[in-house]
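Q: what sequence does this backbone want?
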């Protein structure tokens, strides 16, 4: 069985949904690194100050981010699980994720979290930077139209107002920012397995990852 699994890919490809299910089936810990960038972004927004790199570094310096076994997210000791899922935080997360200091600090924390093994970690740079020695690397993708539709359904289900065309524009912009940034851009590791989920159900994607992990 593969002990450390890295799942990367663009926004809305289904990383967190399938990683969470796979972790439960394997009895592994699920680590959502996007939630950590989102927590930094929320703290930056909550400061109410004009956002620039020096504010982002200041806010990150003494930040405390914790994830529990139910994938709940805590920022400086307070739960922010739902607060970090707004489109405003998504936009800000992509901005804070460009800052070297933030990436260095979160990468260190993520490696520490993975050090006990039996983990499935998802993000943008897990297979390339955070856990280059992972036993299994998956790169999940889907067309931008399909990913926008999934995010639209997700926001609606949570009772947020959502506009499909706007979501597609925002996802395209965020993917561009994430792929073109200088430090640890979104990229498929050379030894990652590409899974295009456009026409696959969640169950089909989960089954394929479990097969690759050696579960069945
Ligand atoms: O769920 P979704 O795919 O929309 O985003 P996420 O995984 O929660 O990540 C939010 C943002 O954090 C991304 O757009 C990236 O800019 C950043 N991120 C990153 O740079 N590196 C990671 N390992 C994870 C997320």
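A:
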């Amino acid at each position: 069985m593969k002990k450390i699994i890295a799942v990367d890919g663009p926004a809305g490809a289904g990383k967190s949904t399938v990683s969470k299910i796979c972790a439960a089936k394997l009895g592994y810990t699920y680590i959502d690194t996007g939630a950590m960038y989102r927590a930094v972004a929320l703290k930056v927004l909550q400061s109410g100050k004009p956002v620039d790199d020096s504010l982002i570094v200041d806010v990150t310096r003494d930040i405390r981010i914790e994830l529990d076994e139910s994938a709940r997210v805590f920022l400086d000791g307070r739960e922010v699980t739902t607060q970090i899922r707004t489109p405003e935080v998504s936009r800000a997360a992509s901005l804070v994720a460009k800052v070297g200091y933030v990436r260095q600090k979160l990468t260190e924390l993520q490696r520490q979290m993975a050090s006990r093994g039996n983990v499935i970690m998802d993000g943008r740079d897990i297979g390339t930077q955070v856990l280059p020695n992972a036993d299994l690397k998956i790169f999940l993708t889907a067309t931008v139209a399909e990913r926008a539709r999934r995010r639209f359904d997700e926001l609606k289900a949570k009772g947020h107002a959502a506009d499909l065309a706007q979501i597609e524009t925002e996802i395209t912009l965020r993917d561009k920012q994430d792929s073109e940034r200088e430090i640890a851009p979104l990229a498929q590791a050379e030894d990652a397995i590409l899974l295009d989920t456009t026409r696959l159900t969640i169950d089909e994607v989960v089954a394929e990852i479990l097969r690759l992990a050696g579960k069945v």
